[in-house]
Amino acid sequence: xxTTYKICAILMMIFLSTSFYAQIPEEIKWEHLKKTYAKDSxxxxxxxxxxxxxxxxxxxLDESSYALYTIKNGLITGDAFWYTNGGHLECxxxxxxxxxNGLKENYDTDRKVWLRQEFKDGKQDxxxxxxxxxxxxxxxxxxKGKKEDKQITYSGGKVLSETEYKDGLREGKxxxxxxxxxxxxxxxxxxxQQDGLTIMYAMSKxxxxxxxxxxxxxxxxxxxxxxxxxxxxxxxxxxxxxxxEEYVTYQK
Length: 252
Prior knowledge:
The protein is mainly beta. Helix content is 12%, strand content 61%. The protein has helices at 2-23, 244-251, and strands at residues 26-27, 34-37, 44-48, 51-52, 55-60, 65-72, 75-76, 78-84, 89-96, 99-107, 113-120, 123-132, 135-143, 146-147, 149-155, 158-166, 169-177, 183-190, 193-202, 205-213, 216-217, 219-224, 230-237, 240-242. Strand 22 and strand 23 form a beta hairpin. The longest helix is centred in the first third of the chain and has 22 residues, at 2-23. The radius of gyration is 29 Å and the shape is elongated.
């Protein structure tokens, strides 16, 4: 009977030992791996000595950080983690067959999220948010790796700016605000260049306005007194200030 107990105890120790070591990821240096990227650089396949990796791996990224990956047939899959050598979690991200798919979160030293991004097929697609001390500072939308729709910046929970994007470029109206929510500026953009009317404000009063075309002042500009009356009127052609007569002649 005692012999039977001893055998069972030994077998249990072997089982626990095997299970414990099976959970420890194998460590492989990044520079020893062969990296094969897809044509669009979104997918990455990892091989060592001509064989695709399979299992859980700890891969030092540099002298101060390392990654924990689950790799199947050479492709990172599932949740991945980046740590400092001190054990601080810097980033958590999701992969699907070697490509980023899903949520990516970066953490500060207080373990708070400072960057949150969504990925699809290896490119940013969806919401992107930045934080400072736990407070939202920037919110953007992405589509196939490029900014789309509106980007909003915040400070202390208040909106500081709103800018419209299309295909990664500023397109449409961009507004900035003061701490009371009053408009400071209204700028129109076309393909990332100022185009159309630009208006500046102070204490909710319009102070100046200019017309732009392809990033250059082009048209009539005004400066205003607090009571709304015009102080100066200026004329511009392709970024150069001209006289009223030259402007009128150009218009004709």
